[in-house]
């Protein structure tokens, strides 16, 4: 069944303009939401701990900054945009004691509700507004008069208008300019985790590195391998993004098309798909969530893996190559 899609005309901005909104966290998503809500005429407070590194940034942007507890107490709508693994403790310590009947608890990702790490009281609305893109892109698109598509979901609706308020919030951060799809916490969480693990982040990074290593181990120059396996990938992905996979096949040479059609399935094959299914099962049965919550305490394996990625030869080659092509470099910056 196709998802329902909402655009600007389906959302009433006045609903969120009539609420006090606390955005807890001022990181990738938090800065984008709070600045765009403010620019859309919403009364916003950012919730950050007293010693938070993000405080100066939020204050310099002219935002009202309170502690998470004070922001939760002040607000009608509390959007939780701190890392997934700290949300349950923040909820227990600072949000739950300050919730009143009729308040709304919003999320940018369904992890803590899907895996029962947070259980809100029955008289509190629970919804999700999840932009389908990194926070800095969410803000950049909003400033440019555009938007990143988003998902909305409602888990609890004692007030009866939670979907309308969530759509209003999505409009205030630019989501309805691009289109907002209706989903559930379960569907958003499971598909988001699967996408980032198997395809977008994990799958793509391993595909790039395996291709690079194959060429370098065969004696080809790392610079040539970088061009073929990483740099040109953006140009190919842009074509797929703009017009689908068929658009890419249409545009590349027939040599590339025939070679890709015959060799691609040997790289991503039945074994790959079987592994993808195992990854999806670990997401669905909670194995991954349990592992990640336990790992997030000390992060020993996580830090080791991060270091291995940073030390890979492709990063050194890539830095050298990008220095020769300053036009491809774009720092992740905050758009005021
Ligand atoms: N990154 C993205 O683009 C996307 C994220 N999401 C979801 O959005 C949510 C936020 O993710 P993201 O923006 O990446 O998060 P970030 O890692 O960027 O959040 C960092 C912010 O959270 C604050 N913070 C960390 N711990 C606490 C705490 N215990 N109490 C209060 N504030 C705290 C940090 O403060 P300090 O500076 O002091 O450390 C900082 O302001 C997650 O649910 C994520 O899954 C959804 C779609 C995309
Ligand atoms: C693809 C990664 C993501 O799910 C996202 C930006 O959508 C995330 O969790 O950061
Ligand atoms: Mg995602
Ligand atoms: Mg994600």
UniProtKB/TrEMBL annotation:
User: Mind listing the GO molecular function terms for this protein?
Assistant: ketol-acid reductoisomerase activity
Q: Which reaction does it catalyse?
A: (2R)-2,3-dihydroxy-3-methylbutanoate + NADP(+) = (2S)-2-acetolactate + NADPH + H(+); (2R,3R)-2,3-dihydroxy-3-methylpentanoate + NADP(+) = (S)-2-ethyl-2-hydroxy-3-oxobutanoate + NADPH + H(+)
Q: Which pathway?
A: Amino-acid biosynthesis; L-valine biosynthesis; L-valine from pyruvate: step 2/4; Amino-acid biosynthesis; L-isoleucine biosynthesis; L-isoleucine from 2-oxobutanoate: step 2/4
The residues that the entry says bind NADP(+) are 26-29, 52, 54, 135
For activity, the cofactor(s) needed are: Mg(2+)
Checking Pfam families in the record gives:
KARI_C, KARI_N
Residues engaged in binding Mg(2+) 2: 192, 228, 232
Q: Which residues form the active site?
A: 109
Q: Does the keyword Transmembrane helix apply?
A: no
The record's cofactor note says:
Binds 2 magnesium ions per subunit.
- Which residue range or ranges hold the KARI C-terminal knotted domain? 184-328
Q: Where does substrate bind?
A: 253
> Keywords on this record?
Amino-acid biosynthesis, Branched-chain amino acid biosynthesis, Magnesium, Metal-binding, NADP, Oxidoreductase
Q: Which residues bind Mg(2+) 1?
A: 192, 196
Q: Which SUPFAM superfamilies match?
A: 6-phosphogluconate dehydrogenase C-terminal domain-like, NAD(P)-binding Rossmann-fold domains
Instruction: Report TM segments.
Output: none
Enzyme class, broadest EC rank:
oxidoreductase
Q: Which InterPro entries match?
A: 6-PGluconate_DH-like_C_sf, KARI, KARI_C, KARI_N, KARI_prok, NAD(P)-bd_dom_sf
**Could you tell me which NCBIfam families the record lists for this protein?**
ilvC, PRK05479.1, PRK13403.1
- Give the protein's recorded name: Ketol-acid reductoisomerase (NADP(+))
């Amino acid at each position: 069944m196709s998802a329902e899609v909402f655009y600007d005309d389906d959302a009433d901005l006045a609903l969120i303009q009539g609420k006090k909104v606390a955005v807890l966290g001022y990181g990738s998503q938090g800065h984008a939401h709070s600045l765009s809500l403010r620019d859309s005429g919403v009364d916003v407070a950012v919730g950050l701990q007293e010693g938070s590194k993000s405080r100066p940034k939020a204050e310099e942007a002219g935002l009202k900054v309170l502690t998470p507890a004070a922001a939760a107490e002040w607000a009608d709508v509390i959007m939780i945009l701190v890392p997934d693994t700290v949300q349950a403790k923040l909820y227990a310590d600072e949000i739950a004691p300050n919730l009143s009947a009729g308040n709304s608890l919003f999320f940018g990702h369904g992890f803590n509700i899907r895996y029962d790490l947070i259980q809100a009281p029955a008289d509190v609305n629970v919804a999700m507004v999840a932009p389908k893109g990194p926070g800095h892109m969410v803000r950049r698109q909003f400033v440019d008069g555009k938007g990143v598509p988003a998902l909305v979901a409602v888990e609890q609706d004692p007030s009866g208008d939670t979907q309308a308020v969530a759509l209003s919030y999505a409009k205030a951060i630019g989501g309805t300019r691009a289109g907002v799809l209706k989903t559930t916490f379960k569907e958003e969480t499971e598909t988001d985790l699967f996408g980032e693990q198997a395809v977008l982040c994990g799958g793509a990074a391993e595909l790039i590195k395996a291709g690079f290593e194959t060429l370098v181990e065969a004696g080809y120059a790392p610079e040539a391998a970088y061009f073929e396996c990483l740099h040109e990938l953006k140009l190919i992905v842009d074509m797929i993004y703009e017009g689908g996979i068929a658009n890419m096949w249409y545009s590349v040479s027939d040599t590339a098309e025939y070679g890709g059609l015959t060799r691609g399935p040997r790289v991503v094959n039945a074994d790959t798909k079987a592994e993808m299914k195992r990854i999806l099962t670990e997401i669905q049965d909670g194995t991954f969530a349990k592992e990640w919550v336990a790992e997030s305490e000390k992060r020993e394996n996580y830090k080791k893996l991060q270091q291995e990625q940073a030390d890979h030869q492709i990063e050194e080659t890539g830095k050298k190559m990008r220095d020769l092509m300053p036009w491809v470099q774009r720092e992740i910056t905050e758009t005021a």
